[in-house]
Amino acid sequence: MTEDKIIVSHYRHVLDIPLDDRRAINNYTINSTDEMPTLPYPMNTTQDPWVKKESAASEGWVTMLWSLSVSSFAVGGMIASVFGGWLGDKLGRIKAMLVANILSLTGALLMGCSKLGPSHIFIISGRAVSGLYSGLISGLVPMYIGEIAPTTLRGALGTIHQLAIVMGILISQIVGLEFILGNPDRWHIMLGLSAGRAILQSLLLFFCPESPRYLYIKLEKEVKAKKSLKRLRGCDDVNKDMIEIRKEKEEASSGQKVSMIQLFTTSSYRQPLLVALMLHMAQQLSGINAIFYYSTGIFQSAGIRQPVYATIGVGAVNTVFTALSVVLVEKAGRRSLLLIGMSGMFFCAIVMSVGLILLNKLAWMSYVSMTAIFLFVSFFEIGPGPIPWFMVAEFFGQGPRPAALALASFSNWFCNFITGLCFPYIEGFCGPYVFFLFAGVILVFTLFIFFKVPETKGKSLEEIAAEFQKKKSGSSQGPKGAVEMEFLGSPETA
After folding, report:
1. Per-residue pLDDT for 31 more than 50?
2. What is the DSSP string of 290-346?
3. Segment 252-287, tens digit of pLDDT
């Protein structure tokens, strides 16, 4: 029995909702000591209309609770993502992440204790609070990494953030195996395991230096900023970094603090903001979550007796290719990896749809679809998975960066929520043709990246601003100095 079915069964038990038939009862186990729920009329195979109506209402109640359990995480992330930049500016990057970890610990404890009380309330609340943590941290971590990383390692260090996420997913898949924690006796322990990660991260954060850009630009503490840089670089000569930070301070001082509304209304910010939002939309609307939705069924049709191990294999491929992206991102560049990843996903989505359509006619098509799953995930983690998270921080200076990251993070979480909400209906309407739809969406985003997204590898903010101006005007010539001054805080609006 999978983890979701175990939790749904526990909801039934707590709410005292009877199961529909004897087969469900035989499959239903809470733990070794709890009594099995029984049907009120076990010998009566036909139910009167009133009983059927009551049963349908009970089924709807359980389905609603499970839907809330799933969606509350995305809702929490969507809400909190807007405040990540504000909290980072208010408390500093390190203290803001420590505060976020309090939410993570609280959510984990609520879910870990879900067997001790009304499990549906504990799990929904715990998921929502954990979502708040994830929404905050999804903006704070890329911002912190982007501010402490040297120019030559911005991409690699930014990709490590995604590597840590996919490693966490792989570990959760492994501990979710039935003989470890994915069983009726220990499922609540699995839900509470994130408390250990929150405690570990909080302890390690005490050894992390504060962002030198935050210290110098926001707090005007040059001595502490230099001290932080020396710890980060491992040497005493940090003059080159300080020159770059001083330029950012001049940018921040040349105008007022940039709000989210100003990002839309100021012409010099509008183009990079559009690109940032589109990159995050491309990540979530590419169909990656649909791939995981279909994977178990495809593995089963391929004759794999325990598809959960094949799903773990997908998680392993996820991790390996994200690690590969860490190496490639500073060599091949961000834009190149995005185009390679999106193009590969486009062809894999088409192959996936063809395989699903012909699955009932040609048995070997299941292996074609299975191969497409692994390749799709590989291409996703080469570029579209990790790159949008850190590339946004490269587009903006210290002034607009927190607001831009907050909007990009909100866009990501919103598309995640919409995809999860709408996909079951789209899949029900389109059936196996659904991946043709995703292929079309991927193609649109690929063309956008080709024409609108500049390469940022090894470039300063001024050079990136000039690249955006080239993309906007369609010309490779132009007064670079004017472009830089416009980016560095010109109040001109369109």
Report:
1. no
2. HHHHHHHHHHHHTT-S-HHHHHHHHHHHHHHHHHHHHHHTTTT-HHHHHHHHHHHHH
3. 676 567 888 889 988 888 999 999 999 999 999 998
For 431, half-sphere exposure in the C-beta direction (CA atoms, 13 angstrom radius) is 6
List all residues 6 or more positions away from 342 whose beta carbon is below 8 Å from its beta carbon: 282, 286, 379, 383, 384, 442, 445, 446, 449
Count CB-CB contacts under 10 A for residue 443: 16
Q: What angle do CA 52, 54, 58 make, to 5 degrees?
A: 115
Summarize the confidence of residues 291-304 as an average pLDDT: 73
**Whether pLDDT at 457 is above 60:** yes
Structure tokens at 355: 């395989």
- At residue 493, the pLDDT reads 37
Distance of CA 24 to the CA centre of its chain: 35
What local confidence, expressed as pLDDT, does residue 45 receive? 46
Model pLDDT for residues 409-437, shown as the tens digit of each residue: 999 999 988 888 888 788 888 888 889 99
Token digits of residue 172: 């959760």
Identify the residue whose tokens are 């799990």. Answer: 123
Report yes or no: 134 and 416 within 8 Å, Cβ to Cβ.
no
Question: How far apart are alpha carbons 1 and 359 in whole angstroms?
Answer: 26
* Cα–Cα nearest to 188, from 122, 131, 130, 125: 122
- How many angstroms separate the CA atoms of 11 and 21, rounded? 17
219-245 in b/e burial notation, b at 16+ Cβ within 10 A? eebeebbbbbbbebeeeeebeebbeeb
CA neighbours within 13 Å on the CB side: how many for 28?
22
Residue 51's pLDDT is 47
